[in-house]
Structures are given as C-alpha cells and as structure tokens.
Amino acid sequence: MNTKPWVAAVLTVAGSVAGFAAETASAGEPYRIVNTAQTLGEGGIDYVFADSDGRRLYVPRGEKVLVFDLDTLKPTGAIPNTRARGAAVDPKSHHGFASSSPVAMWDTKTLELIKTIPVEGRPDGILFEPLTERIYVLSHSQPNATVIDAKDGSVVGTIDLGGAPEQAASDGQGHLYVDIEDQDNIAVVDVKTLKVTAHYDLGGKGRGPAGLGLDAKNHILFAFCHEPSVAVVLSAIDGKILATVPIGRGTDGGGFNPNTMEAFSSQGDGTLTLIKENSPMSFEVSQTVQTKSRAKTCTLDTQKNQIVLITTEPAPAATPAPGATPPPPVADNPQRGGGRGGPRGPAFLDILVVGR
Prior knowledge:
Elements: H1 5-28, E1 32-41, E2 49-51, E3 56-61, E4 64-69, E5 75-79, E6 87-90, E7 95-98, E8 103-107, E9 113-117, E10 123-129, E11 134-139, E12 145-149, E13 155-159, E14 165-170, E15 175-180, E16 185-190, E17 195-201, E18 207-215, E19 220-227, E20 230-235, E21 241-246, E22 251-257, E23 262-267, E24 271-279, E25 282-290, E26 297-301, E27 306-314, E28 347-355
Antiparallel strand pairs: 1-28, 2-3, 3-4, 4-5, 6-7, 7-8, 8-9, 10-11, 11-12, 12-13, 14-15, 15-16, 16-17, 18-19, 19-20, 20-21, 22-23, 23-24, 24-25, 26-27, 27-28
C-alpha cells in the first residue's frame, strides 16, 4: 500500500496508543486460572519449578522428577530413580538438579542423567544462585545448606543456617535470603564467603515462615507465615519490619514478580494471594484467586507473568464387581508446611496456571 507520510504517521501514533491501551487493559484484568492439566500417577509431591528460559516445568513426584512443556503442560519426559522434593536449573550450563539424596544432576536439553552427588542432611528446598552460578540444597537437619557448583556438580561447601530452612531468594548481587521456619527469622548469606551475616527476626508478627518473595530492586522481603496467616514485609537491608498483610491459610510457597510489582503466596486452603507493592512503603492485597485444595506450592513463569501451582486429588474408585468387598477409601494426607503430601495410592496430579 502506498501511504502518504502524514497518514503513515497518524497510523503509527494510533497503533501505539491502541497498543498502550491494550497493555493497560491487560494489566487491569483480574487473575484467573488460564490453563490446567491432570495426569494419573502415584507418590507425594512438594515443590514445583518453572524453567522459564528452557520452557519446561519440573514436578518431583514419587520416585521420579516429572517434566512437562511449560506452554502446553504436556508431559515431555522424566528423571527416573530420583526421590526429590524440588528442582532447580542453571540456564547457563543447562544443568538441572533435584533436592534428593543423592542429588541428581541432568542435562536440561536431553533430560539425560549426568551424575549423582552425595550430600548429607535431608534435602528439601533448592535454589539456583545466579551471581556465583551455584545450587543451594536446603535441609531441615545439618548441614542446613549444601552448595554445589552448577557447572560441574562439585560440592563447594556447606552452611549452618541456625535452623530449618524453607524457601530462599537471591538478589543477584551477592546476598541470599533464607526463611528459617522453626526460628521465625530470615537468614542472610554472603554467597561469596558462604557465611551467615545476619538474622532478621520477624518480631512476633508472624511464625513459621514457609514462602519467601524478594523485590531485589527495592530491597524488600515478603515472608509468608503460617501463624497468623500473614505476609511479614521487611527491609532486605536491615530487617526493619515495614508491614503485615493478610494471606490465606496453609502457605508453603511464594515469590515476587518484578514485572508486575506483585508478591504472591499459595495456600493449602485453595487460594492464591496477590499483594501489590504500590510503593516501597505501601502494600495491599490486590486479589485472592480460588485455586484447589492443597495447592500450596507454586512457581513463576517470568516470561508470561503466570503462576503455576500443583496439587493432588484421589482418583475415582473403581466400581467393585458384584459380591466383591469394596476397597477401603483412599486417605488424604494434608500437611502443614513442607512434605511430600497427597493421597495414598493412585491419584491425579493437577497443574494449575494462573494469569491474566
């Protein structure tokens, strides 16, 4: 089309305005469940991890780590013989790790096992720290953290965190923050020296911190607590408590999305709480999304600004043959905080994606 210059300019401006309007409208839309998937299997679950760069979703379940396409939620493979609680990925070396004993290390492109790494303690949470390109394997028993070089899988050290760690967050500038569930504080770790430099006490505002979010730009921490059900907001610089914000019951995971300036917490009562950071001193619940019972762990897809949650539910019981004794009901196993919880026996794994 041969368009006159002034017409083209008008069209360009109109297109820009339309694009801005659409973007603004999208940001104002409420969160909702935008995608789901369900697979039948056995075994408990705990943490879920989204590899946003590699577009894979990792769900440790039973004796393996299940792998799904992050966009379609279709199964793409598994890391077998790996009884893990969580998973983490180094996007540079394309190496994946599971918080198992021993720790499993694999190629994230082929899903082929590279090696297993003996560790002490009881591996639970796990995190990739980008500045040093290391994996932190967290344990409720000592050593509380085992640090692994993500490039070659060698153990570079261990850390005594002074209690039972749950979730951790890195600011990418040399500091790692770890919520210590049984001590009601946040441990601050220097990732270069592998030393704890401070403990930020929650001051009785919240007990049993399980999830953790970090606004690295503004140096703000969100500690998602069990009792009472609140997020304790505090300064990552000196631990000063800034606010408390109500959340749902039974939190076991959370985070912070710098693209939307929102903290989020997933709860076992079937809710996802979103907290808007209006300014470094102003925080409010912007929305509570109804999810599913016991969907208490979550992960962030940073490319799509979507939150992925998981839970399990019993599979429907088969109809017994005439005259046969029906099997006992499948018992649910709800758990406060961490743990590979879920129904015993065959059960559905539910994957929920929350977005706009």
